[in-house]
Amino acid sequence: MTERQPIVYVIDDDASIRETLNSLIRSVGLCVKLFSSAKEFLESSRPDTESCLVLDIRLRGMSGLDFQRKLGDSGIAIPIIFITGHGDIRMSVRAMKAGAVEFLTKPFRDQELLDAIHLALEKDRERRERGAEVAHVEARYALLTPRERQVLPLVVSGLLNKQIAAKLGISEAATKVHRSQLIRKMGANSLPDLVRMAEKIGFPLRSNSDS
């Protein structure tokens, strides 16, 4: 199956700026989709692929900062590069605190924007890879029996089989079976591997001294 090409979305209500950005970004072989408003972007269908957003901070209707917040509230994770002709320090600090990759004030050098785009696409690629890893571990975890799910946090916290058996009120032999089965089902190659998997799905890891 062929991978989808990364997409750079551009939202700017100035048609001439949209076209300038379109030419620049396409010149380095990237796919671009242009929008004149945040509303138009939200109403569009977007392929599930690596992407980033080049966003004018002063849009008509909804400002870029308000749109950034709306995306966050809606659970839409996409790296944002802000561009503006009227930026100020307070605005840039607010944008960066909310997770923007870059805040560029016009006129900026073409290479500054292209560097920011490549960084944003790399961040999105990493986020997607982390998400795929978590989904894989969650699918493995779903295969565990209720008892194996009880044993898992005790194993990754470093307890010995006899300690796990005492905590759960089961035999040490049964504990060994559960431990072996959960490691097999999780597809872990070692205890550190199992610990990393547990951390990926947000398992609270307990220390040996916890009762």
Summarize it.
This protein is an alpha/beta fold.
Distinctive features:
5 strands; single chain; 9 helices; disordered C terminus; 54% helix; Arc Repressor Mutant, subunit A; 5-stranded parallel sheet; 2 domains; alpha/beta; Rossmann fold; 211 residues
Structure notes:
- The protein is of the alpha/beta class and 211 residues long.
- The protein folds into two domains: 7-130, Rossmann fold (3-Layer(aba) Sandwich), CATH 3.40.50; 143-200, Arc Repressor Mutant, subunit A (Orthogonal Bundle), CATH 1.10.10.
- It is built from nine helices and five strands, in the order βαβαβαβαβααααα.
- A five-stranded parallel beta sheet has the order 2-1-3-4-5, with helices on both faces.
- Helix 7 crosses helix 8.
- The radius of gyration is 24 Å and the shape is elongated.
- It starts with 6 loop residues before the first strand and ends in an 11-residue tail after the last helix.
